[in-house]
Amino acid sequence: MRYLVKFGKLNLIKRLQKLKKDPGMNEQFEEALKLLKNAVKYSHLDNQKHLDFSLINADLLDQYKKAMVIVRTAVAEGELTEIELKQKLGLI
Fold first, then answer.
1. 39 with 56: CB under 8 angstroms?
2. Which residues fall within 8 angstroms of residue 85, CB to CB, at 6 or more apart?
């Protein structure tokens, strides 16, 4: 939900419309997943995996943020569930 606030509902609607029109969006989604998998960290404290952007070099951080927007937009549109996204990222 905070992505709706951060990026604005209007911007999200535009991204969703672009997803429907752009057949290359699946390629972008797969590339975004591959990129985000590099930020998965295993936490020894609570025995869980999570995305940790502190692992990413500062010059690449914008790419990771864009990748996060792509995958969150796919979830928001209903292309996949939150659980499916976590499975694809290797979080569960």
1. yes
2. 71, 74, 75
SS3 42: strand
- ∠ CA 85-55-28 to the nearest 5 degrees? 40
pLDDT tens string for the chain (92 positions)?
444 444 555 565 565 555 555 555 688 899 999 999 988 988 877 778 888 888 888 999 999 999 999 999 999 988 889 999 999 998 88
* CB atoms closer than 10 angstroms to residue 54: 7
Containing 31, the helix (H) or strand (E) segment is: helix 25-37
Task: State the pTM of this model.
Answer: 0.67
Please work out, in degrees rounded to the nearest 5, the angle formed at the alpha carbon of residue 85 by the alpha carbons of 52 and 53: 10
